[in-house]
Amino acid sequence: MSALTKASLAAVVAVVFLTTLKPGAAIMSGNVDCNKVQQYFTPCAGYLFNRFSSNPSPGCCASLRSLNAQSKGPVRQGVCECLKRNAASFPGLIQEHATSLSTKCGIPLNTAVSLNADCRRA
């Protein structure tokens, strides 16, 4: 299988995986619905799960800028907790891509993006 075919397959698997949550099953972190937070990352699946992708898409960055603009104070901390919870549950997530996402999209954050982030600093 060629590298391009593998990359395409990985992107399709990632999108299918991201869309399999049950709509009625709200997972909450404080006052934040983690399923809604996850939806903002759907356009980023091709970057987050594909080691051959070097940059997130413009749609990915636009979606994350929108999430960032809506996330202030305690909501931002809840979003951070959701991201940690969601990232830990996705096998195949490329941590280096997740870590570089905010920088590559030009979104300044108060804390490092990682599974061990201190969300109180978010």
- Mean pLDDT comes to 77
Order of strands, main sheet, comes to 1-2
Give the ordered list of helices and strands: HEEHHHHH
Number of strands: 2
Shape: globular
The percentage helix is 40-55%
- Indicate the structural class: mainly alpha
Characterize the main sheet: 2 strands, antiparallel
How much is the radius of gyration in Å? Answer: 14 Å
Strand content: under 5%
Jot down its keywords.
single chain; 122 residues; mainly alpha; two-stranded antiparallel sheet; 2 strands; globular; disordered N terminus; lipid binding; Bifun_inhib/LTP/seed_sf; Bifunc_inhib/LTP/seed_store
Q: Would you mind describing this structure in some detail?
A:
It is a single chain. The protein has 122 residues and is mainly alpha-helical. Helix content is 54%, strand content 3%. It contains 6 helices and 2 strands. It has helices at 3-18, 34-41, 45-48, 58-70, 74-88, 95-104; strands at 28-29, 32-33. Strands 1-2 form a two-stranded antiparallel ribbon. Helix 2 (34-41) packs across helix 5. The longest helix is centred in the first third of the chain and has 16 residues, at 3-18. It starts with a helix and ends in an 18-residue tail after the last helix. Residues 1-26 have low confidence and may be disordered.
Compact description:
The chain has 122 residues and is mostly helical. It has six helices and two strands.
